[in-house]
Design brief:
alpha/beta, 6-stranded mixed beta sheet, 4 helices
Length: about 140
């Protein structure tokens, strides 16, 4: 069944590519794929570090195989971003760009944005700045 461009469909990535994911995710990480014809959104919750690097990379690969015009990585629930998580974002970017797509990082906390900025990722991909907290 094909969805119209305006309708988003939620599905765990296991429903798209179970063999590519290689089993259960580490308990520190939850990822959900929401996709339509032009855009894939990864809703990420938990820690992006060495323990979750492979699972995160597998989800990025599943989303990239859909060849979206834009892959959005929503970091609203991310509590920690380590070098391994940054490496996965940097790894997938050229693959998306080669297919004519873009990568956008949204819902960053101030600390997550700072890590992405210090790593130089804010200059090579769209990273939404955190919204200021109301007083």
């Amino acid at each position: 069944m094909r969805e119209s461009a305006g309708q988003l469909r939620q599905a765990d990535a296991e429903a798209h590519e179970a063999p590519a994911l290689g089993g259960e995710l580490p308990c520190e990480l939850t990822i959900r794929l929401v996709a339509d014809a032009d855009r894939s959104v990864l809703l990420v919750r938990g820690e992006l570090d060495m323990a979750t690097e492979t699972a995160f990379g597998d989800f990025l690969d599943v989303a990239a195989r859909r060849r979206p015009a834009c892959l959005v990585v929503d970091l609203e629930g991310v509590t920690c971003i380590g070098a391994s998580g940054l490496g996965q974002l940097a790894r997938i970017l050229p693959r998306l760009e080669a297919a004519g797509g873009t990568l956008a990082i949204t819902s960053t906390s101030p600390s997550a944005y700072r890590v992405l900025d210090v790593a130089g990722l804010t200059t090579c991909m769209h990273v939404e700045p955190p919204t200021p907290e109301e007083p």
